[in-house]
Amino acid sequence: MQTWEAVTSRRNVRSFTEQQIGSEDLHRILEAGRRAPSSRNLQPWDFVVVTDRAELQELSKVWVGAGHVAGAATAIALIIGPAEEPGHRDEFDLGQATMAMMITAADAGIGSAHSAVGDQDLASQLLGLPADHSCAYLISLGYPADRPLAPITRPDRRPFDEVVHWGRW
Amino acid sequence: MQTWEAVTSRRNVRSFTEQQIGSEDLHRILEAGRRAPSSRNLQPWDFVVVTDRAELQELSKVWVGAGHVAGAATAIALIIGPAEEPGHRDEFDLGQATMAMMITAADAGIGSAHSAVGDQDLASQLLGLPADHSCAYLISLGYPADRPLAPITRPDRRPFDEVVHWGRW
Questions:
Q1: From the list A51, A152, A164, which residue is nearest B49 (CB)?
Q2: Which residues does B9 contact at the CB level (< 8 Å), separation at least 6?
Q3: How far is CA B6 from CA A129, B21, B34, B110, in A?
Q4: Reduced to 3 states, what is the DSSP secondary structure of residue B72?
């Protein structure tokens, strides 16, 4: 798929078919995340890949907005360690890695949605995390139950001319 | 360009040729950012586009790591308003928008690099920002001075099998 088609086809998908994600596609999605840039190339992330249905259902309980994880073909848990320094760089970098994975998923016709994590104890127990690590986000992946991904012509976003300023604000 | 080629060709480029970025490419890069997902679709960003050489040179002084802005063909300043609620969602969302723009730039053979902003007073004065807004990041764009973008076969990253865990940590 052409890049622009993948970028414009990506949308939040929260309901998935039973179809599994092929290992080649999944590897490529994870590789896109691994390659993402990060502050001082710290790569503050680890990815835990969950495909077991029972585990996905349990994981979906970590946050009110994580319901879509229960029916996902695969979830990728974004894990971070103890912050090396104050600041929000980890969050920015996780956002970059997430977007790289979602665009790469869209390229293969795979839908995605992400969720924050509220119950860190539950997430940590389910994922077997080291004590000083936490689960920052969950990314659900799967083939859309409603309609295939296709370029979105009128995205639900603020108008271009409101968001973009030329030269100065 | 195919999506995977764009994803794997993106790299930090900090030295640029004099070639300007065509308006169609620039529009597409900005549109990719506008379309990025955000928490509760808040779209907490505004983008200020800078192409004037003198302004780029002044902007490059806002942070020790922003030197590449001086020679960029274009810089996109990511602006955020007052935080609506505690938490790091804005940072995560800015990371998503940034990655969408950088991959879209790579698709057109355009290199990119980003920088944090230290001197908010200077950034605010140069960009004419409202008093309650700040410049979170700068993205430099331009054609690479050294070598064209091409898929990177051995990225400088932690090994795949170290980053990716299957089922549990």
A1: A164
A2: B1, B106, B149, B150, B151, B152
A3: 33, 17, 19, 10
A4: coil
Chain A residue numbers touching B5 (CB-CB < 8 A): 3
Domain boundaries, chain B: 3-163
B59: chain A residues, CB-CB within 8 Å:
none
By C-alpha distance, the chain A residue nearest B155 is A35
The pLDDT-based confidence of B159 (bands split at 50, 70, 90) is very high
Whether residues B98 and A94 touch (CB distance < 8 A) is answered with: no
The CATH code that applies to domain A3-163 is 3.40.109.10
Segment B88-132, tens digit of pLDDT? 689 999 999 999 999 999 999 999 999 999 999 999 999 999 999
Rounded to 10 deg, the angle between the B89-107 and A89-107 helix axes is 50
